[in-house]
């Protein structure tokens, strides 16, 4: 067992940190306020191959594994939850194509995605359900060499950007949930205005409307009726992104707590001298370190999945922990700041709003607990 990062991992981490601090941090508040990521940031991330970190070189990726992906995501989400969410949802969509796509599909969609020229999505949630595939109401009807898709998807990240979308619908002949690769902005595709969400702002979240969208039969992902296993593994891999988005915000809470404790003075002494503040700083450190090692471990496990059900349990456990702990950490950092923390002038205000996203996405925390309990009690 060796917990040290390799030379390559340290370099990757540094590259992401440098880019995040130099180019994203100075405009992080603007991204939050405008709910928009400037195109030059998308291009900059693409040039550094940060949209293709875990994917093999042969498909245009950086080949740095999911462990490398956790390191990058931590640094990006430390400065902007919205940018991290964009990368996470993209990697979730591309990851499903990489895991279940045919060679032709991988060659067609991964290279442009890995370079950030196209941004991927993964569309499961609907107005009627976010947790239960049996309740999906989007439908796919086979007509000759095409499937015709109709329905509405809710809260879909990155659906505004051109690129592939892995989408789930009930295939009507079999009655089974099936996955397809839909090219966004194809005829019959439209989206809502972006949702004005509390955190991860800049990460675009819209509803998607499908009206008689024609998807060529070769864009079936996996087989008819294989939607559920694709969803399970796809989402389990996706939880690396949501967990590490939470991890970066936990690190930001820790750093902002320490910084403020040192800067703010009472009777000419920093508040860091108060034992009550020291206890909060210690709690922040504990929360960050525990979340960090769970996330890094999940990244390592994802590089070599032998048993998808076991991996789904590890992903649920990590996501439940990282997603809940980030909210606790952000509250503690806010407490260290007192009333100042409530003001937009202080970063901790945004960190808390970003943190609130953690427990709710890619299955709420209780859903993760049900997966963990299911594995323990079967
Ligand atoms: C920032 C953001 C980005 C997102 N991006 C995407 C995306 O790219 N693609 C996508 O498909 N979705 C996306 N979503 C949607 C998100 O993943 C879902 O909203 C989430 O999984 C929860 O689904 P829901 O809101 O429909 O909750 P529901 O499934 O309606 O659950 C509501 C509550 O009921 C409980 N509950 C539900 N079923 C059960 C049960 N069987 N037993 C016990 N309790 C139950 C849940 O625990 C929860 O507390 C995004 C959401 C956000 C906020």
Count of individual helical segments: 11
As a percent range, the share of strand residues is 15-25%
Low-pLDDT runs of 5+ residues are: none
Number of strands: 10
CATH topology of the largest domain: Butyryl-CoA Dehydrogenase, subunit A, domain 3
What coarse outline follows from CA principal-axis ratios? Answer: globular
CATH class of the largest domain: Mainly Alpha
The CATH level-2 architecture of the largest domain is identified as Up-down Bundle
Number of structurally distinct domains: 3
Average pLDDT, all residues: 97
Rg for CA atoms: 21 Å
Bound molecules: flavin-adenine dinucleotide
Percent helix range: 40-55%
Calculate the terminal CA-CA distance, rounded to whole Å. Answer: 29 Å
At the fourth level of CATH, the homologous superfamily of the largest domain is Butyryl-CoA Dehydrogenase, subunit A, domain 3
Structure class = alpha+beta
Question: How are helices and strands ordered from N to C?
Answer: HHHHHHEEEEEEEEHEEHHHH
The biggest beta sheet, please?
A: 8 strands, mixed
Structural commentary:
The protein is built from eleven helices and ten strands. It is 52% helix and 15% strand. It has helices spanning 7-24, 28-34, 39-47, 65-79, 81-100, 103-114, 227-263, 275-302, 308-337, 347-355, 365-377; strands spanning 121-123, 139-143, 146-157, 164-171, 176-183, 189-191, 205-216, 220-221, 265-266, 269-270. The model has no long low-confidence stretch (mean pLDDT 97). It folds into three domains: 7-114, Butyryl-Coa Dehydrogenase, subunit A, domain 1 (Orthogonal Bundle); 121-221, Butyryl-CoA Dehydrogenase, subunit A, domain 2; 227-377, Butyryl-CoA Dehydrogenase, subunit A, domain 3 (Up-down Bundle). By secondary structure, it is α+β, with helices and mostly antiparallel strands. The structure holds flavin-adenine dinucleotide. Flavin-adenine dinucleotide (FAD) is lined by residues 85, 89, 121-125, 129-132, 155-157, 197, 200, 205, 357, 360-364, 366-367.
């Amino acid at each position: 067992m060796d917990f040290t990062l390799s030379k390559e991992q340290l370099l990757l981490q540094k590259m992401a940190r440098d880019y995040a601090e130099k180019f994203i941090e100075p405009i992080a508040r603007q991204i939050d306020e405008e709910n928009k990521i400037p195109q030059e940031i998308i291009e900059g991330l693409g040039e550094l191959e940060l949209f293709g970190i875990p994917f093999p070189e042969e498909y245009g990726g950086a080949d740095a594994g999911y462990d490398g992906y956790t390191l990058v995501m931590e640094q990006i989400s430390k400065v902007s939850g919205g940018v991290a969410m964009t990368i996470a949802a993209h990697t979730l969509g591309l990851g499903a194509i990489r895991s279940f796509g045919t060679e032709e599909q991988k060659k067609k969609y991964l290279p442009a995605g890995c370079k950030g020229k196209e941004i991927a999505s993964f569309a499961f949630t609907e107005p009627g359900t976010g947790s239960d595939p049996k309740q999906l109401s989007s439908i796919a009807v086979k007509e000759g060499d095409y499937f015709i898709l109709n329905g509405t998807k809710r809260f879909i990240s990155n659906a505004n950007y051109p690129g592939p979308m892995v989408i789930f619908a009930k295939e009507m002949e079999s009655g089974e949930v099936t996955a397809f690769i839909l090219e966004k902005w194809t005829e019959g595709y439209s989206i809502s205005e972006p949702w004005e969400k509390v955190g991860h702002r800049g990460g675009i979240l819209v509803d998607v409307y499908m009206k008689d969208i024609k998807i060529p039969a070769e864009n079936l992902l996996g087989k008819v009726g294989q939607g559920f296993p694709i969803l399970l593994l796809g989402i389990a891999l996706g939880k690396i992104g949501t967990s590490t988005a939470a991890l970066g915000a936990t690190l930001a809470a820790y750093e902002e707590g320490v910084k403020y404790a040192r800067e703010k003075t009472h009777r000419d002494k920093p508040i860091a001298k108060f034992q009550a503040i020291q206890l909060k700083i210690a709690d922040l450190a504990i929360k960050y370190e525990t979340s960090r090692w769970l996330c890094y471990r999940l990244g390592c496990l994802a590089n070599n999945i032998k048993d998808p059900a076991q991996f789904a349990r590890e992903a649920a456990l990590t996501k439940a922990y990282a997603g809940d702990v980030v909210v606790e950490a952000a509250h503690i950092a806010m407490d260290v700041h007192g009333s100042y923390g409530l003001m937009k002038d202080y970063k901790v205000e945004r960190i808390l709003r970003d943190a609130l996203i953690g427990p709710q996405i890619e299955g709420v925390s209780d859903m993760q607990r049900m997966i963990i309990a299911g594995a323990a009690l079967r």
